[in-house]
């Protein structure tokens, strides 16, 4: 009669990765002395994804829930609190995906090589690879935005004439106007927080001249405290 194979190694690998992910998250939040190290700490969490052991649906949900929480906490602490924002937040998804595809393939291939005796190839490339691709796209997009939103001393500001479409309902200290503008031959609408005085004076159809930073990669961006400028 055959005895079942021990599963200690499978559990140990996942538990170790979870513990390391929690420690990396705490390091990025409270200990990392420089800003780049905080960014890299999130990248480390993403790199762990292909090395998780996939056994059944409940384990998948539990493992990736923990990793999602770690990555989300790090993201909110680092990226979402940054004092700037892109004019068109969807722009970097294309370049990010182009760079994320080979990165996700290389990470999964590395997991396949390093754990070739303890990896399910089918689950690695059908379950973990799509998750890894999404995580890499999100992370690379974040890095691109961080690099793009830098001051360029000699570059001229981007001048955009926007039309007030409507006033958004007041919420706390947020005074948003829904603006319509044309950029690179396409029409866009964007809610923007403005100064309370401007919010009171603005009417539908009024024009507002926006002066935005050009961005290192050509993606216009502005400080979230732009409301102080447009009074």
Number of strands: 6
Separation of termini? Answer: 82 Å
What is the N-to-C succession of helices and strands?
Answer: HHHEHHEEEHEE
Sheet with most strands: 4 strands, antiparallel
Structure, described:
It contains 6 helices and 6 strands. The strands form 2 sheets. A 4-stranded antiparallel β-sheet has the order 4-3-2-5, with no helix packed on it. Strands 1-6 form a two-stranded antiparallel ribbon. With 231 residues, it is of the alpha+beta class. The protein has helices at 8-31, 35-47, 57-80, 93-114, 121-148, 196-201; strands at 84-86, 158-167, 176-183, 186-193, 207-212, 221-223. 51% of the residues lie in helices and 16% in strands. The radius of gyration is 23 Å and the shape is elongated.
Write the layout of secondary structure elements.
Elements: H1 8-31, H2 35-47, H3 57-80, E1 84-86, H4 93-114, H5 121-148, E2 158-167, E3 176-183, E4 186-193, H6 196-201, E5 207-212, E6 221-223
Antiparallel strand pairs: 1-6, 2-3, 2-5, 3-4
Helix pairs in contact: 1-2, 1-3, 2-3, 2-5, 4-5
List its traits.
231 residues, alpha+beta, 4-stranded antiparallel beta sheet, 51% helix, elongated
Brief summary of the model shown:
With 231 residues, the chain is an alpha+beta fold. The protein is built from six helices and six strands; from the N terminus they run αααβααβββαββ.
